[in-house]
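Tutorial handout. Part one gives the primary structure; part two gives the three-dimensional structure as tokens.
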Amino acid sequence: MKLRSEMPELVGEVAWLNGQVSKADLVGEKPTLIHFWSISCHLCKEAMPEVNNFRDKYKDELNVVAVHIPRSEKDLDLDEIKVIAENHGITQPIFVIVS
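Part two.
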């Protein structure tokens, strides 16, 4: 996806955590930050505090959505995704992909 290209619909999820949003909710007045992460990604977890800071600091000026992308079979455990998200303070909507 290129900068300034149209955002695709968010489809193919197995679940939404912390609420659900659509493309229509994310396109418009405010820019959208989409944070791609996985429970097995150490660097993703290191970045989460900064993403959370952006989310909180710019809550009125920025949409933030997390997209969980599995890197292995172990990353498909929805209960574990919920635990890791809670442990790392991910309160924004999380789009959970299964493949």
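Part three, for discussion. DSSP finds three helices and four strands in the chain. The mean pLDDT is 91.
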